[in-house]
Amino acid sequence: MTIRKVASLCLALAATLAFALPIQAADTQVAVRSLRGTDVIGPSLEPDVPKVPNDRGALPRDFVQQPPLIPHDIRNYQITKNFNKCLDCHSWSRAQETGATKISVTHFRDRDGHELAGVSTRRYFCVQCHVAQTDARPLVGNTFQKSTGLQ
């Protein structure tokens, strides 16, 4: 036998096994289970996507120095090195017109405290610190107590 014939036979055998094994496995009806013993696949395990409430004004903060929370949906907002959708409303030049909160003057300082003409690159990607709120239920119990005297 030549090398081509041996290679062809091996390839044919591999292709036959590749098609035969999945059919055999499908007939066994073995349920897929997680390490915790729960079913992995099923209609009840579809993700419960929480809803983001409509714009509802400034949200109260829970601790000192907490970045303000985003009170509206930001899904599909584009924030890249060349464009920041948040600044369409929250920039100093547009905030009064749109009724949005102006970004803080701290966003115009570099790491050494020098004032800049535009938003600092350290503060340009808003969702590093600011998060949108949803109506999601907590995943785990929480005993956190709010600080008093905050806005």
UniProtKB/TrEMBL annotation:
**Chief subcellular location:** periplasm
Q: Lineage, please?
A: Bacteria, Pseudomonadati, Pseudomonadota, Betaproteobacteria, Rhodocyclales
Annotated Gene Ontology cellular component terms: periplasmic space
Q: How is it modified after translation?
A: Binds 2 heme C groups per subunit.
Q: Which organism is it from?
A: Niveibacterium umoris
Give the protein family: Belongs to the NapB family.
Q: Which Pfam families match?
A: NapB (PF03892)
Functional note? Electron transfer subunit of the periplasmic nitrate reductase complex NapAB. Receives electrons from the membrane-anchored tetraheme c-type NapC protein and transfers these to NapA subunit, thus allowing electron flow between membrane and periplasm. Essential for periplasmic nitrate reduction with nitrate as the terminal electron acceptor.
Residues binding heme c 2, per UniProt: H107, C126, C129, H130
Protein's UniProt name: Periplasmic nitrate reductase, electron transfer subunit
- Residues that coordinate or bind heme c 1: H72, C86, C89, H90
Gene Ontology MF, one: metal ion binding
Which residues constitute the signal peptide according to the record?
1-20
Q: Which UniProt keywords apply?
A: Electron transport, Heme, Iron, Metal-binding, Periplasm, Signal, Transport
Q: Cite the record's note on assembly.
A: Component of the periplasmic nitrate reductase NapAB complex composed of NapA and NapB.
List localization entries. Periplasm
A GO BP annotation: anaerobic respiration
